[in-house]
């Protein structure tokens, strides 16, 4: 066990809407160790992105962090001032976003934008910032970085823009990099390149990475540990290999079964998870997944299960598996 | 990296480095503007009026050899080109061209000062309201609604009565209403820009609110300001002329295109040039500002590409 870099404890983020309170993140706890790659998976609306934005304290109104703590080393990010938080953003934790097409400011040269975090955090670095930015663009695989750093975003392709975004996140050498679906907007070949790059960055700079995705394949290839979220809660966590081999929550189990396989019988219909994602304003009673669960027992609709150790390395919030049942059997 | 293997006896070519010049949105817009002949011509007319205003004393010393207030009662209502008066004289024998030259100082001075003040205030209010939203937005924009709900002409009349009109106060009076519509326009643009991902992405890198507004929002709404500023210049010149015409603007003996028009309306039938010259200059400058504004809009607005 290495040192714990980031500790999220019982985080709750809610959106007060006209129709009621949306519990986007409802009591999420996890730890991130230095240098590790952690995957957060879940379907749209499961709270993955809001968790990331909460860590950065960038939840858009009417969203609000209503409870819990986010600790970076020994500092509680939920209580420090906005000014101090600005120092943390970019300097200690950087975040890159889903859509590289709109994540760069169209009116500035790419090199300047990559240098901006350096300038923002240390005005004295203004002189050296451009050189560092160009070097970083080269490192993330932009050809002719000296020349391309003078280009404007519209002259970059989608993959190059995402590389530039990663360069932007890395110029300040943050300890944590949060990548929110960094490959969703890119085509498959570029996806692989960007993931390779993130993997290489993680090894070369020792940046701890939180990779948010709904693509289980990405998690399998990249992450040491994985967290599965459903309806704002963590339903399962553990080492990626173990979770994939022996899912301990029916939701993970269903997710894994719904991946199309090349070696499957061509005439066998694709397994989908029946039902629809729950309404986050009025969650089902008990376990939020129970209406869609094929393993459910009576207790599932009555009591909310908590995340507890199931098996040797995993945690799951499920009455069925906590009761000792093996989903693969 | 896979590098192509050079065949035996063949020299591997040097990697081709593209020497293509990167062109920004601004450079492309400038090029589109320069390709618009009407736009360039209108711009040149505006520049001409500005130069005339700046060099009025020099020009009058060179060409008319008289002061705008020199009364020559022996030479009243001289038609153009008579007695050394290129554009004739008015009812007090004052040289019409000299008065037009100095009138340009008033019109262009008030015009540009008003535009600068209105743009500065309007842009600041629009940026702040649009960026922060919520209560700040509500309060600021309802105040703008209030300003714009009062008929401008009454406000002008009231203020012209309260403050003695000179170039500066008149510019401020006109700008005190004009900033409202600019604030609305900028706010609207900010609302669309602020939701774009780069705003959150930049914030996630540690940028402060002030930096986000000044360095990231402002450049993205600047084109709105430039275009509207030019169109607004035309409005200001017209408003100023109307206030002069109503006797609420620049008062004689200081010449302005507006008060020259007022003074001469009674002589229209026997000395029509006294109406024609200031009328034509106002018409030309307003037309030029409008055409230039439209050309700027065509050049800057990506939707018209």
Describe this structure as you would to a colleague.
- The complex is a heterodimer of chains A (329) and B (305).
- Chain A has 329 residues and is an alpha/beta fold.
- Chain A folds into two domains: 4-223, P-loop containing nucleotide triphosphate hydrolases (Rossmann fold), CATH 3.40.50; 233-263 and 270-322, no CATH class.
- In chain A, 32% of the residues lie in helices and 24% in strands.
- In chain A, the strands form two sheets. An eight-stranded mixed β-sheet of chain A has the order 6-7-8-3-9-10-12-11, with helices on both faces. In chain A, strands 2-1-4-5 form a four-stranded antiparallel β-sheet.
- Chain A is globular, with a radius of gyration of 21 Å.
- The two termini of chain B are 39 Å apart.
- Chain B is built from eleven helices and no strands.
- The interface between A and B is medium-sized, with 38 and 25 residues.
Q: Are there runs of chain B of 5+ residues with pLDDT below 50, and where? A: 1-14
Strand content of chain B: under 5%
State the domain count of chain B.
1
**Which of globular, elongated, flat, extended, rod-shaped describes the shape of chain A?**
globular
